[in-house]
Structure formats: C-alpha cells, structure tokens
C-alpha cells in the first residue's frame, strides 16, 4: 500500500520496469495502459494519504474515464508494486481482492468474490488473495475465497475456484488443477 511519496515513486518505477518500459512522457502519452497504471498509483497515493479533495476528485474522474475507455473494472489498492497489465480489454477485479508484487495479468481476466451475499465488513474474507510473481493468462477466472501462492502460473481460460497455496505451481483447466510436468528419463 502506498503510504508516502517514496512508496509512490517505488511503485511507479516497479510498474514501468515490470512492463518493460521506462518512465517517460512519450510512453505515458502513447501507451494507454501505462497511463492508466500511473493514474491508478497517483489515485492510491491521494486516497491513502488523504490528500485534498481538490486533487482527489479530478484523479478519480480521470481514473474512471480511463477504466471505461480501456475496459477495466477494478478499484485502487488491489495490486502490489510491479503490476504489468499486458493489453487493454476486459479486465474485471473485485476491489477487495489483493494481489502481490510483480503480477503479470492479461486481458479477459475476471477475479471476483464468492457470489454469496455477505455482511459488507466480511467482504475481504470472500475474495481472492494472490501471491507475488504470479502470471495470470488470458481469460482466466478466479472466484471465491481462494489463495494462490507466490510464483504460480495460471493458464489461459482456467477457472480457479479452490486454493493453491504452494509456491511455483502451474495451474490450468476447468476447474483448475495443478499440472505436473513430465519427467524425462
């Protein structure tokens, strides 16, 4: 979570580095996904440090406008540092979801809560928790109170509805299961 200006700088630097781009005015103008990531981080900074409403409201409007334009539906403070959203297109993430650092996420991904009606104070317990260095392939769906360990890979079009807490797993299928690579003799 971004708590001060130094956190903001490190998150932005990690995001651009994870995307394989450098922070420059040209990249922010020509790449709408990087512009969205930058605005998202500025909004998180303003929200978490309780900056003036004069600064917060225009950033919120800009964030919502870019979200609508790019097909993203997500809230602030979902991602850790180093997020790489690969393409614009449909991306839906429940605002109560928490995703660790260095996540690489493709278009068509849906990450949502359990689907049952719960008390608003318990929403956090019904949304996914995803570890660090996770790759989420195009079209993957992750639902419910699941936990995904660090360094995992979630295959394209997988439907994850149970937890995979061990690190470094390859998860794929409908419903998702752990895939084991064959050993060569």
Automatic annotation (TrEMBL):
One Pfam family this sequence matches: Hexapep
Top-level taxon: Bacteria
EC number: 2.3.1.30
Catalytic activity: L-serine + acetyl-CoA = O-acetyl-L-serine + CoA
Keyword presence, Signal: no
InterPro entries (alphabetical): Hexapep, Ser_O-AcTrfase, Trimer_LpxA-like_sf
Keywords from the named record: Acyltransferase, Transferase
Entry's family note: Belongs to the transferase hexapeptide repeat family.
Protein name: Serine acetyltransferase
Organism listed in the record: Tianweitania aestuarii
Organism phylogeny: Bacteria, Pseudomonadati, Pseudomonadota, Alphaproteobacteria, Hyphomicrobiales
